[in-house]
Amino acid sequence: MSLTPHILVVDDDERLRKLLDRYLSDKGFEVTVAEDAAQALEQMQILVFDALILDVMMPGMKGTDLSEALKSKNPNLPILLLTAMSEPDDRISGLQTGADDYLTKPFEPEELILRLKNIIGRKQPAKHHASTINFGPNRFDLNRQTLTQNDKAVQLSTAEARLLKTLAEKNSEPISRQDLQDMCEISGNLRTVDVQITRLRKKIETDAKHPRYLQTVRGKGYVLYLD
Q: What domains lie within the chain, and their CATH numbers?
Protein backbone atom coordinates (compact mmCIF):
# COMPACT_ATOMS: atom_id res chain seq x y z
CA MET A 1 0.00 0.00 0.00
CA SER A 2 1.23 3.48 -0.82
CA LEU A 3 1.79 6.06 1.93
CA THR A 4 -1.39 7.78 0.71
CA PRO A 5 -3.94 5.05 -0.08
CA HIS A 6 -5.42 5.45 -3.56
CA ILE A 7 -9.14 4.62 -3.66
CA LEU A 8 -11.25 3.99 -6.77
CA VAL A 9 -14.91 4.93 -6.23
CA VAL A 10 -17.30 3.38 -8.75
CA ASP A 11 -20.92 4.59 -8.62
CA ASP A 12 -23.39 5.78 -11.23
CA ASP A 13 -24.80 8.37 -8.82
CA GLU A 14 -22.89 11.55 -9.68
CA ARG A 15 -23.87 13.27 -6.44
CA LEU A 16 -22.58 10.41 -4.31
CA ARG A 17 -19.37 10.18 -6.36
CA LYS A 18 -18.64 13.83 -5.72
CA LEU A 19 -19.47 13.53 -2.02
CA LEU A 20 -17.21 10.52 -1.57
CA ASP A 21 -14.45 12.14 -3.60
CA ARG A 22 -14.50 15.23 -1.39
CA TYR A 23 -14.93 13.38 1.90
CA LEU A 24 -12.23 10.77 1.28
CA SER A 25 -9.84 13.42 0.00
CA ASP A 26 -10.42 15.46 3.16
CA LYS A 27 -9.55 12.35 5.19
CA GLY A 28 -6.18 11.96 3.48
CA PHE A 29 -6.96 9.50 0.69
CA GLU A 30 -6.11 9.90 -2.96
CA VAL A 31 -9.33 9.39 -4.93
CA THR A 32 -10.25 8.47 -8.49
CA VAL A 33 -13.89 8.10 -9.55
CA ALA A 34 -15.66 6.12 -12.25
CA GLU A 35 -19.34 6.10 -13.22
CA ASP A 36 -19.54 2.43 -14.22
CA ALA A 37 -17.59 -0.83 -14.42
CA ALA A 38 -16.29 -0.14 -17.92
CA GLN A 39 -14.77 3.17 -16.86
CA ALA A 40 -13.38 1.55 -13.73
CA LEU A 41 -11.61 -1.12 -15.74
CA GLU A 42 -10.12 1.56 -17.97
CA GLN A 43 -8.78 3.38 -14.91
CA MET A 44 -7.29 0.16 -13.60
CA GLN A 45 -5.32 -0.28 -16.79
CA ILE A 46 -3.30 2.83 -16.08
CA LEU A 47 -3.47 3.29 -12.29
CA VAL A 48 -2.83 1.13 -9.22
CA PHE A 49 -5.38 1.28 -6.41
CA ASP A 50 -5.16 0.28 -2.76
CA ALA A 51 -8.91 -0.37 -2.49
CA LEU A 52 -12.16 -0.11 -4.44
CA ILE A 53 -15.59 1.14 -3.36
CA LEU A 54 -18.19 -0.37 -5.69
CA ASP A 55 -21.89 0.38 -5.98
CA VAL A 56 -23.82 -2.88 -6.41
CA MET A 57 -26.60 -1.67 -8.71
CA MET A 58 -25.05 0.05 -11.73
CA PRO A 59 -26.05 0.12 -15.43
CA GLY A 60 -24.26 -2.54 -17.42
CA MET A 61 -21.97 -4.67 -15.27
CA LYS A 62 -23.13 -4.73 -11.64
CA GLY A 63 -20.75 -4.10 -8.80
CA THR A 64 -21.05 -7.68 -7.59
CA ASP A 65 -20.04 -8.99 -11.03
CA LEU A 66 -17.13 -6.56 -11.20
CA SER A 67 -16.04 -7.59 -7.71
CA GLU A 68 -16.09 -11.26 -8.65
CA ALA A 69 -14.13 -10.64 -11.84
CA LEU A 70 -11.48 -8.56 -10.10
CA LYS A 71 -11.12 -10.93 -7.15
CA SER A 72 -10.58 -13.89 -9.48
CA LYS A 73 -7.48 -12.13 -10.80
CA ASN A 74 -6.34 -10.37 -7.62
CA PRO A 75 -7.73 -11.93 -4.42
CA ASN A 76 -5.80 -9.43 -2.27
CA LEU A 77 -7.45 -6.34 -3.75
CA PRO A 78 -9.60 -4.79 -0.97
CA ILE A 79 -13.18 -4.20 -2.13
CA LEU A 80 -16.05 -2.53 -0.27
CA LEU A 81 -19.55 -2.86 -1.75
CA LEU A 82 -22.21 -0.18 -1.39
CA THR A 83 -25.89 -1.02 -1.82
CA ALA A 84 -29.37 0.20 -1.05
CA MET A 85 -30.43 -3.40 -0.42
CA SER A 86 -30.27 -4.35 3.25
CA GLU A 87 -31.66 -7.89 3.39
CA PRO A 88 -29.30 -10.56 4.78
CA ASP A 89 -29.47 -12.52 1.52
CA ASP A 90 -28.25 -9.44 -0.37
CA ARG A 91 -25.31 -9.06 1.99
CA ILE A 92 -24.42 -12.74 1.71
CA SER A 93 -24.65 -12.57 -2.07
CA GLY A 94 -22.30 -9.59 -2.12
CA LEU A 95 -19.73 -11.22 0.14
CA GLN A 96 -19.84 -14.40 -1.92
CA THR A 97 -18.31 -12.46 -4.80
CA GLY A 98 -15.16 -12.14 -2.69
CA ALA A 99 -15.80 -8.57 -1.52
CA ASP A 100 -14.18 -7.78 1.81
CA ASP A 101 -17.03 -5.78 3.29
CA TYR A 102 -20.54 -4.54 2.58
CA LEU A 103 -22.13 -1.23 3.57
CA THR A 104 -25.81 -0.38 3.20
CA LYS A 105 -26.98 3.03 2.01
CA PRO A 106 -27.54 5.45 3.60
CA PHE A 107 -24.43 5.18 5.75
CA GLU A 108 -22.44 7.30 8.16
CA PRO A 109 -19.28 8.67 6.49
CA GLU A 110 -17.26 7.81 9.60
CA GLU A 111 -18.30 4.17 9.31
CA LEU A 112 -17.23 4.11 5.66
CA ILE A 113 -13.78 5.36 6.65
CA LEU A 114 -13.50 2.78 9.41
CA ARG A 115 -14.51 -0.10 7.18
CA LEU A 116 -12.20 1.11 4.42
CA LYS A 117 -9.22 1.32 6.76
CA ASN A 118 -10.05 -2.13 8.11
CA ILE A 119 -10.13 -3.88 4.74
CA ILE A 120 -6.93 -2.15 3.66
CA GLY A 121 -5.26 -3.04 6.96
CA ARG A 122 -6.23 -6.71 6.71
CA LYS A 123 -4.30 -6.98 3.46
CA GLN A 124 -1.12 -5.57 4.99
CA PRO A 125 1.40 -7.38 7.18
CA ALA A 126 0.16 -7.17 10.75
CA LYS A 127 2.12 -4.62 12.72
CA HIS A 128 1.82 -6.56 15.93
CA HIS A 129 4.13 -9.26 14.56
CA ALA A 130 6.92 -6.96 15.65
CA SER A 131 7.92 -6.82 19.30
CA THR A 132 7.30 -3.07 19.40
CA ILE A 133 4.80 -0.70 17.82
CA ASN A 134 5.20 2.98 17.07
CA PHE A 135 2.50 5.61 16.79
CA GLY A 136 3.36 9.29 16.85
CA PRO A 137 5.91 9.91 19.60
CA ASN A 138 4.90 6.69 21.35
CA ARG A 139 6.78 3.39 21.35
CA PHE A 140 5.18 0.38 23.05
CA ASP A 141 6.99 -2.87 23.79
CA LEU A 142 4.39 -5.63 23.37
CA ASN A 143 6.36 -8.20 25.32
CA ARG A 144 7.33 -6.05 28.29
CA GLN A 145 4.19 -3.89 28.03
CA THR A 146 6.26 -0.74 28.55
CA LEU A 147 5.64 2.62 26.92
CA THR A 148 8.05 5.40 26.04
CA GLN A 149 7.15 8.79 24.61
CA ASN A 150 9.86 10.78 22.89
CA ASP A 151 12.26 8.23 24.42
CA LYS A 152 11.03 8.98 27.95
CA ALA A 153 9.36 6.26 30.05
CA VAL A 154 5.61 6.61 30.63
CA GLN A 155 4.15 4.86 33.67
CA LEU A 156 1.20 2.61 32.81
CA SER A 157 -1.13 0.85 35.20
CA THR A 158 -1.67 -2.88 34.67
CA ALA A 159 -5.09 -2.20 33.12
CA GLU A 160 -3.72 0.49 30.81
CA ALA A 161 -0.88 -1.75 29.62
CA ARG A 162 -3.27 -4.63 28.95
CA LEU A 163 -5.64 -2.36 27.05
CA LEU A 164 -2.87 -0.93 24.89
CA LYS A 165 -1.47 -4.37 24.09
CA THR A 166 -4.90 -5.82 23.27
CA LEU A 167 -5.86 -2.93 21.01
CA ALA A 168 -2.46 -2.92 19.27
CA GLU A 169 -2.72 -6.62 18.48
CA LYS A 170 -6.06 -6.10 16.73
CA ASN A 171 -4.33 -4.22 13.90
CA SER A 172 -6.69 -1.21 13.69
CA GLU A 173 -9.87 -3.25 14.19
CA PRO A 174 -12.43 -2.10 16.79
CA ILE A 175 -13.01 -4.11 19.97
CA SER A 176 -16.21 -3.90 21.99
CA ARG A 177 -16.14 -2.67 25.58
CA GLN A 178 -17.32 -6.07 26.79
CA ASP A 179 -14.55 -7.88 24.93
CA LEU A 180 -11.96 -5.44 26.24
CA GLN A 181 -13.19 -5.99 29.79
CA ASP A 182 -12.97 -9.76 29.38
CA MET A 183 -9.66 -9.87 27.49
CA CYS A 184 -7.93 -7.39 29.80
CA GLU A 185 -9.47 -8.79 33.00
CA ILE A 186 -10.81 -5.43 34.09
CA SER A 187 -13.09 -5.69 37.11
CA GLY A 188 -16.24 -3.63 37.58
CA ASN A 189 -18.81 -2.67 34.95
CA LEU A 190 -18.36 -1.45 31.39
CA ARG A 191 -18.02 2.11 32.63
CA THR A 192 -14.72 1.03 34.19
CA VAL A 193 -13.41 0.28 30.71
CA ASP A 194 -14.33 3.80 29.58
CA VAL A 195 -12.51 5.27 32.58
CA GLN A 196 -9.35 3.28 31.80
CA ILE A 197 -9.53 4.31 28.15
CA THR A 198 -9.80 7.97 29.17
CA ARG A 199 -6.74 7.61 31.41
CA LEU A 200 -4.78 5.88 28.67
CA ARG A 201 -5.67 8.60 26.16
CA LYS A 202 -4.23 11.23 28.47
CA LYS A 203 -0.89 9.40 28.33
CA ILE A 204 -0.66 8.71 24.58
CA GLU A 205 -2.56 11.54 22.90
CA THR A 206 -1.50 15.14 22.33
CA ASP A 207 -5.13 16.15 22.79
CA ALA A 208 -7.10 13.54 24.73
CA LYS A 209 -10.42 15.22 23.90
CA HIS A 210 -9.70 14.87 20.19
CA PRO A 211 -7.76 11.59 19.99
CA ARG A 212 -5.82 10.67 16.89
CA TYR A 213 -4.82 7.13 17.79
CA LEU A 214 -7.20 5.69 20.39
CA GLN A 215 -10.62 6.39 18.95
CA THR A 216 -14.21 5.54 19.81
CA VAL A 217 -16.22 3.72 17.14
CA ARG A 218 -19.92 4.28 17.67
CA GLY A 219 -21.75 1.01 18.28
CA LYS A 220 -18.52 -1.03 18.09
CA GLY A 221 -16.18 -0.01 20.89
CA TYR A 222 -12.61 1.26 20.69
CA VAL A 223 -9.84 1.06 18.09
CA LEU A 224 -6.14 1.93 18.08
CA TYR A 225 -4.82 3.35 14.83
CA LEU A 226 -1.08 3.02 14.28
CA ASP A 227 1.21 5.07 12.02
A: 6-122 (3.40.50.2300), 127-224 (1.10.10.10)
